[in-house]
Amino acid sequence: MPNDVPPQPIHSAKDALDALAGILGGALPGSIATADDPADTLLNDPDVASAVTGRLRGAGSGAGNDTLCRWLYDAFRANVPELQLAVLRFVPTLAGVYMCRAVSRKPLAGFEAVLLALYAHAVAQRGGAGEAETVSLPNLANPSPYHDAKVPPKAKPAELDVAVLSPPLEPHGTMRATRRARIVGAVLELYHGKLSRMPLSSKMDFCEFCVAWAGTHNKADDDDKPRLPPATDAVTGAEKWRRVPLPWELFQPVVRIVAHCLLGPSRSDELKAQAARAAECLYWRATETMDAPALLATRSLMRLSQMVEEPIPEPSFSGAIENMAELEAMRANILNTKN
């Protein structure tokens, strides 16, 4: 993999596209460089997506001298919103490959630099202090505000329950094993915030890595027993993505993204099928650890997906029509009797 292309300064989407063409070379068609909308090309063009994700998945990617990682880093740090969106588009592959390789303790300074830049942006979005994201839930001990109580409450109203959607983010300048799940989880939360603008292929990549991270089979696979996929395929030499640790700080944003893919507005049956498989694999992974929040979230997600798949029966008015005819006949008889 060539890494001798000098980095070019990036100030706009056109600069980013030109720099990417210089890095990938013949992997991109010549028409890409003359695209009318460089920002849209970086985000949605299938040739760009295939070339970048293929390079990120390639052997030796993610090293400290990886020019593609340098491009992702510089493009995001340019503080151009459309460029930041284009970089987020590759978060599933970036995080997926990184987490699978990190368990083998390979040096991945290039991946880590990009992830830390995204994490720093997430911290800055919370006012620089990395405050927790919370939501207030109604307390059922309080009387309903929509009804008049027959007996005035004697006690003071109970305080609202506060649920933590995302714990506080502490600034980190280095990646350590103890911080890895939190940093990658925060990056996935950043990705989730822009998920509605992500192309279909990006969401498909994420669901693919979710299945690998879970490291289990669903009931549609050949066997129902959990297994650990091998790290490499001795026959083809293709890398197999590893099962990874999934603490709640990483598991929660993963489930939220899978839920959007499964229950969101997308009309792609392929995406929904892939998301359903990911949800089931995550559920079986949760059953291994017996993590109550993870079990509840994944089981609820599976039940919701089954409810969506069930067709809604068409209402039948045949019985109502017969009843109306009978009522009309009775009314006619009553009127005739009175006359």
Automatic annotation (TrEMBL):
Its main location: membrane. Keywords: Cell membrane, Cytoplasm, Membrane. Coiled coil: none annotated. Pfam families: Hyccin (PF09790). It is found in: Cell membrane; Cytoplasm, Cytosol. It comes from the Eukaryota. GO terms for cellular component: cytosol; plasma membrane. Belongs to the Hyccin family. This is Hyccin. It comes from Setaria italica.
